[in-house]
Amino acid sequence: MSEHENLAERFETHRSHLQAVAYRMLGSLSEAEDAVQESWLRLSRTDTSDIGNLGGWLTTVVSRVCLDMLRSRKSRREESLETTLPERLESYKDGSDPEEEALLAESVGLALLVVLDTLNPAERVTFVLHDIFAMSFSEIAPITGKSETALRQLASRARRRVQGPGAASEAGSTSELTRNREIIDAFLAAAHAGDFDTLVAALDPDVVLRDDRQPEAARVTRGAIALAKQVSGRAQAAQTALVNGAIGVIAAPRGKLAYVLQFTIRNGKIAEVDLISDPARISRLDLAVFGV
């Protein structure tokens, strides 16, 4: 076996970890694969005789690549003032497998991916490496070019965004949040399975849905039967999350936010649902992950 082949074989033993890191940083399977490939190219051009910990070296490299990609993405978004959420949904023309990416997004957590996308590049990289992959701030410092003190502040700020500041105190007790989550999770499961009777049972008979995607005259749907018919067989890319401190739902195909649902629950039944897809309205919502 040649030296190059041996290096390639060693690299492959780290590929799955590198892809896991890159996907959580970038939220895109195709971009994560690009970042991992770039880390291989950099390794193949490097004298490896001084690399004592190949896994650590590769994690550092792929993290730096991801940080650069996130900064470039942020710059492009700031330059494109007309960008809207639906237009940011990626097509499948990037060569990635939509089914594979959907499964990956669900395994990581749709809500987590959506909330991570609200962090700035340094916050996201720091949170992913420290809170998800348990790297020390001393290891992260050379990746970001920031001091350990600054990284602690970044991680704390990111953690508050991900977990939601004071969620339980704003929306009631944790037990109330848990009960409401059970109700909404059951609603989502029934919608996904097309279980019409269970859907109707989860809804107040006079439930109201307000959907901002529809024309003004058709924005409101009233009644449990009508709403159950509308959502039955759907919700494949939906997951519970904290929305303004209360249990809500985010719909995020392949981890890309499409709309948010806010709920009003009365007497254990869903009484009101607000579907929000307008980017300006979504930007004013405080989205967080419940139970992290």
Low-confidence stretches: 79-93, 167-171
Strand content: 5-15%
Number of helices: 14
> What would the principal axes of the Cα set say about the shape?
elongated
Question: How far do the termini sit from each other?
Answer: 46 Å
Radius of gyration, Cα only, in angstroms? 22 Å
Q: Helix proportion of residues, in percent? A: 55-70%
Output the CATH class name of the largest domain: Mainly Alpha
Fourth-level CATH superfamily of the largest domain: PhyR, sigma-like (SL) domain
Mind telling me which CATH architecture of the largest domain this is? Up-down Bundle
Structural class category: alpha+beta
Subunit structure: Interacts transiently with the RNA polymerase catalytic core formed by RpoA, RpoB, RpoC and RpoZ (2 alpha, 1 beta, 1 beta' and 1 omega subunit) to form the RNA polymerase holoenzyme that can initiate transcription.
Domain RNA polymerase sigma factor 70 region 4 type: 111-161
Domain RNA polymerase sigma-70 region: 11-75
Protein name: RNA polymerase subunit sigma-70
